[in-house]
Design a protein that fits this description.
Helix 5 packs across helix 6 (93-116) and helix 6 (93-116) packs across helix 7. With 159 residues, the protein is an all-alpha fold. Helices cover 58% and strands 0% of the residues.
């Protein structure tokens, strides 16, 4: 399904992270991978309740039929991310805990360790859906003289 979504959006899954790592190396920056290891996420997914697995199968099959013929403006998909995540949480409560909450808790801990162990700026590249909650969780973490936290994003349209 990731490959299918990547084909529809014109961006293979993980491409943004590979490009970010390449850009960081070009300017001599240290690269830290802060996401929860896929083995942990995979183990949790195997314990997904049958009801949510069934919903995933039905929704996945429906999307294979509907999405190729839909006229979705993919550039607008990220405009209301909070409501999309809310709908995802409502439909898949356990899956959202695994894919969003557990991973974000891990990422926040990793970012705090990086910030505590380095000087200078720290740049975190994360998936768009994680951006706002990570920024909220880290806001004010290292406030004081010489410290500031903030966030911004840039989306390349490939033009």
């Amino acid at each position: 399904m990731e490959k299918f979504a990547g084909h529809l959006t014109g961006s293979a899954p993980g491409t943004e992270m590979l490009e970010a790592a390449k850009a960081a190396r070009l300017v001599g920056s240290r690269v830290e991978f802060i996401d929860l290891p896929i083995t942990s996420t995979g183990a949790a997914l195997r314990k997904l309740p049958r009801k949510e697995k069934a919903k995933l199968v039905v929704d996945g099959l429906a999307s294979l039929v509907v999405l190729p013929f839909s006229r979705i403006n993919w550039s607008k998909v990220t405009e209301d991310m909070d409501s999309q995540i809310g709908a995802f949480r409502k439909r898949y409560p356990v899956l959202s805990r695994i894919l969003i909450d557990t991973r974000e808790e891990y990422m926040i801990g990793r970012l705090k360790r990086v910030m505590d162990s380095t000087t200078g700026q720290v740049l975190a590249v994360v998936g768009f859906g994680h951006r706002a909650s990570l920024a909220r969780a880290l806001a004010g973490y290292m406030e004081g003289p010489g410290f500031a936290t903030g966030f911004s994003w840039e989306v390349s349209t490939g033009s």
